[in-house]
Amino acid sequence: MYTSEKAPAKINLTLDVLYKRSDDFHEVEMVMTTVDLADRIELYLLDRDEIMIQSENRFIPNDERNLAFRAAKLLKERFKISAGVKIIIEKQIPVAAGLAGGSSDAAATLRGLNRLWQLGISTEQLAALGAEIGSDVSFCVYNSTALAKGRGEIITELPAPPSCWVVLAKPSQGVSTQSVYQSLPLDKVEHPDTIGMVEALKNSDYDGICSRLKNVLELVTLPKHPQVQQIKQQMLQSGADAVLMSGSGPTVFGLVKHESRAVRIYNSLRGFCEEVYIVRMLGSHQTLD
Ligand code: ATP
């Protein structure tokens, strides 16, 4: 028996860090949405008691360190499953890019195994299990637009942004999320208008969304990776309505209303940045203008 799942990337419309908690995690507030750049996860039922993982991507581990492996192990142990699974990951999302690729693979594995092993777990329960694997996994279980609080695991779903185009550009370096959080000078943070962003989404207010894009982790990543700032400038010069770094970076995204403008930005970045994608946000059904 076999099933497959899409594991889409996320981008941050806001990312705020409020304080460092006594458990060493940071208390965050993030508005995130899902885009249609996705890994594909294939899950094959095995009779023997084993979790196998395969991927041709040389940047991710093919063993128990893989977040998809950890998702399968968690379900197997928690629900005392004697069967095994072979997990094949076709990677499309750049690794260590601020797009939650690993978290999304873990979330897709949870969703897929819930079906394959016929566990009957609710989405809320899956999201709670996801939080045991990583802070972004709960959000990725939903594949939607949401406000994430706590260390990222307290999810309130929101309406998707109005239909628009997203250009993603990933500089060649990867970024370690942990080291970015550790280097953040909390006293220098200018906080995003998270409530305003939530309202803009509820009102389907594209301009309101654009004017409130803000990520406090730029404070750390921008000085260390000058290419991130250069890409932001290039996108704005080529007509992006608004630009931001996603997560801990280094991926930058630009929002535009029209496809032709997205293509112009895409072309202006080719040669300057290795990985550039034109994508859409998932669940955006309203049209603009
Ligand atoms: P986030 O935005 O959640 O911080 P990210 O997009 O910056 O994540 P990932 O692509 O998830 O980063 O990769 C972070 C690290 O996780 C990498 O060092 C990678 O080796 C490891 N990893 C483990 N499993 C996976 C997976 N299935 N896909 C990608 N990376 C994985």
Automatic annotation (TrEMBL):
Residues 66-143 form the GHMP kinase N-terminal domain. The active site is at K10, D136. Belongs to the GHMP kinase family. IspE subfamily. It catalyses: 4-CDP-2-C-methyl-D-erythritol + ATP = 4-CDP-2-C-methyl-D-erythritol 2-phosphate + ADP + H(+). Its EC number is 2.7.1.148. InterPro entries: GHMP_kinase_C_dom (IPR013750), GHMP_kinase_C_sf (IPR036554), GHMP_kinase_N_dom (IPR006204), IspE (IPR004424), Ribosomal_Su5_D2-typ_SF (IPR020568), Ribsml_uS5_D2-typ_fold_subgr (IPR014721). ATP binds at P94, V95, A96, A97, G98, L99, A100, G101, G102, S103, S104. GO terms for biological process: isopentenyl diphosphate biosynthetic process, methylerythritol 4-phosphate pathway; terpenoid biosynthetic process. Catalyzes the phosphorylation of the position 2 hydroxy group of 4-diphosphocytidyl-2C-methyl-D-erythritol. Residues 197-273 form the GHMP kinase C-terminal domain. This is 4-diphosphocytidyl-2-C-methyl-D-erythritol kinase. Keywords: ATP-binding, Isoprene biosynthesis, Kinase, Nucleotide-binding, Transferase. It comes from the Bacteria. Pathway: Isoprenoid biosynthesis; isopentenyl diphosphate biosynthesis via DXP pathway; isopentenyl diphosphate from 1-deoxy-D-xylulose 5-phosphate: step 3/6. GO terms for molecular function: 4-(cytidine 5'-diphospho)-2-C-methyl-D-erythritol kinase activity; ATP binding. Pfam families: GHMP_kinases_C, GHMP_kinases_N.
